[in-house]
Amino acid sequence: MTVWNPWHGCHKLSAGCKNCYVYRIDSKFERDSSIVAKTGSYNLPVRRGRRGNYKLAPGETVYTCFSSDFFLEDADEWRKGAWGMIKERGDLHFFIITKRIDRLQVNLPEDWGQGWEHVSIGCTVENQEMADHRLPLFKAAPIRHKIIICEPLLGPINLQAFNPGSWAEQVVAGGES
Question: Maximum Cα–Cα distance for the chain, whole Å?
Fold first, then answer.
């Protein structure tokens, strides 16, 4: 398991962002989480060792952009390059979670089709309001591997109307950290 944060920082979007773990951790180091910046590990998936081998071993799961949101507006200029690295490393499994599923199409690779086999995308829904807003978009999105993330679960959510068993590979639920 590897965590790849090509950029860091985010802007709070909804009730699920109120007690964001990134903001909490950054505050301990007196960092401003609202400043979005490309990180030193931007090119991590394609880094090579002295012998020319990739540093990340084939078959690894790469938890992508866990200190930001992959579809954050501020990262639009970097996302195309990130998609290029993800495509190059088809031997890894990339796992992306977003609250911004409405921005999936921004900088989406031309050859994305219905999604790449080695990419799973999770859409976060923290309450019924966000489930009602985001899940129709998520269900219709061209993504091969979809996971519904009910975190942080701020109240009851009824997913029956969305019939997630017919299109989502997994539903995960959890509280605030």
Answer: 53
CB atoms within 10 A of CB 52: 6
Closest CA to 12 of 112, 126, 92, 169: 126
Residue holding tokens 């060792």? 49
**Dihedral angle sign, alpha carbons of residues 26, 30, 35, 39:** negative
Q: DSSP 3-state assignment of 123?
A: strand
Q: Each residue of 32-75: pLDDT tens digit?
A: 888 899 999 999 999 999 999 999 999 999 999 988 999 999 99
Bridge-based pairing of strands 61-64 and 93-98 is: parallel
For residue 45, give the 3-state DSSP assignment. helix
The verdict on whether omega for the bond into residue 142 sits within 30 degrees of 0, i.e. cis, is no
Backbone angles phi, psi at 91, to 5 degrees: -90, 0
pTM, whole model, 2 decimals? 0.93
Dist CA 177 CA 172 (whole Å)? 15
Q: What pLDDT, on the 0 to 100 scale, is given for residue 34?
A: 84
CA-closest candidate to residue 66, choices 128, 151, 155: 151
Question: Region 130-149: what's the mean pLDDT?
Answer: 98
Which CA distances in Å does 164 have to 1, 27, 43, 115? 27, 37, 34, 18
The one-letter amino acid code at 161 reads A
